[in-house]
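EI: anyone free to look at a 272-residue chain?
SC: sure, send it
EI:
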Amino acid sequence: MNAAAPLHTISVGTAGPRIAFLHGLFGQGRNWSQIAKALAGPAGTGARSTLVDLPDHGRSPWSQEFSFEGYAAAVADTLRGIDDSTPWVVVGHSLGGKTAMLLALQHPELVSRLVVVDIAPKSYGSLERFSGYIDEMQRLPLGELTNRADAEARFEEPNAGVKAFLLQNLRRDGDSWRWQANLELFAADAAKGTGSVIAAWPDTTGLEPFPRKVLWVAGSESSYITDEDLTPMRALFPKVRQLTVRGATHWVHTDAPDVMVEALRRFAHVDR
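SC: here you go
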């Protein structure tokens, strides 16, 4: 990844606290648009949100090799480039949650408050949960596609929501199609099995605990956070507070947007 190239971002709102949103694997910054618009309010003055496309996603540059340190550094450079005088409330989901946690630990001066959505500071063993999605994406015959409806018909994913989420990465350039996400990089990482870097948690030895408030959001129907995760989470983020959203899966902000908006309003001191 070209270190000089900033990550692609979308801005929502004109006043209020600065909030940065970091999406999960195969996501894009615009996945948080509904939340950001609600926080900004009808006048756009409730909050200034920046929706970040992480490296290897959306319209941001690709990496040669995946690392959370590289992701966190790219986010730090991008946020400083937008506003280096105001600390940010950083919200991260899943892969973006790990990136946000490392960002807060490595660049605490940049982060005023942290929101971690349905992920813990631990290794998840492998990318097994995503391997099937990656296989489906690789099987899609890009050279044969005639239009997006054709792609949707050929893409063998029974869950309509998951299918739409993954196919948002499909882009048309003239008469050809391509994956906007760095699919080969993710496939190579998934092929490492328990050696997956994306599924792991980076080494934070020697880093000071994050001294400010942290909101840790979990979906009640998700298995990504367990009771055993509280001890390592508190060791790194001693001012953490947990919020479990009833009925929500791993995609808490999609399943319960109103709850997420209200939680962020209170935590980030967003005016209505």
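EI: DSSP finds ten helices and nine strands in the chain.
SC: 👍
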